[in-house]
Structures are given as C-alpha cells and as structure tokens.
C-alpha cells in the first residue's frame, strides 16, 4: 500500500526498499546534500534519492517527499 508523504518505512532499509520498489532510487535530489557518513566519517555529496558513501559503501536513502530536509536522510547499511 502506498502511504504517501505521511508513511513510515521502519528506518533506512525500509526507505531504500520503498525507493527501489517505486523506481525512485536514481531520481536526482532537488538540491544535492553534503553528508558525513555515519560509518566512516567521509564527507560526500548525496546526488540521488539513494546514494552511497564512496569510502565504505554505506547506503543512504530519502523519499522524494522529504528530500528537501537533510534530517530525513537515513542510513540503510553498508552495501545494502
């Protein structure tokens, strides 16, 4: 069931699963966001709704509805 912008996906893995299921993983972020990786501390630009740290492979995701808010970006796990 599609929950729209109010849906809860149970953490980063759930967000990334939803992005993949809906075909939004490769969608460009409205504004690229600089992240500091939770896994290794590397700073990188998140350019798409699903992106990964170039150093350790930690995968991050954010839904299109919340892509304007960097606090909504969630880690799914290394090589998720």
Features:
80 residues, 5 strands, 3-stranded antiparallel beta sheet, alpha+beta, two-stranded antiparallel sheet
The low-confidence parts are none
Instruction: Report strand order across the widest sheet.
Output: 3-4-5
Helix content: 10-25%
Structural class of the helices, strands and pairings? alpha+beta
On the 0 to 100 scale, the average pLDDT is 92
What's the helix count? Answer: 1
What's the shape? globular
Number of strands: 5
Query: Over all CA atoms, what is the radius of gyration?
Result: 12 Å
Task: Measure the end-to-end span.
Answer: 23 Å
SSE sequence, one letter per element: HEEEEE
Q: Name the beta content range.
A: 25-35%
Could you give a short account of the major beta sheet? Answer: 3 strands, antiparallel
Task: Report on this structure.
There is one protein chain. By secondary structure, the chain is α+β, with helices and mostly antiparallel strands. It has one domain. The protein contains one helix and five strands, in the order αβββββ. Strands 3-4-5 form a three-stranded antiparallel beta sheet. The two termini are 23 Å apart. The mean pLDDT is 92.
């Amino acid at each position: 069931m599609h929950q729209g912008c109010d849906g809860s996906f149970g953490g980063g893995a759930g967000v990334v699963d939803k992005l993949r299921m809906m075909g939004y993983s490769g969608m460009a972020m409205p504004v690229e966001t600089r992240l500091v990786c939770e896994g290794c501390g590397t700073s990188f630009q998140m350019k798409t709704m699903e992106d990964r740290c170039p150093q350790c492979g930690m995968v991050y995701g954010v839904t299109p509805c919340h892509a304007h808010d960097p606090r909504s970006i969630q880690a799914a796990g290394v090589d998720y």
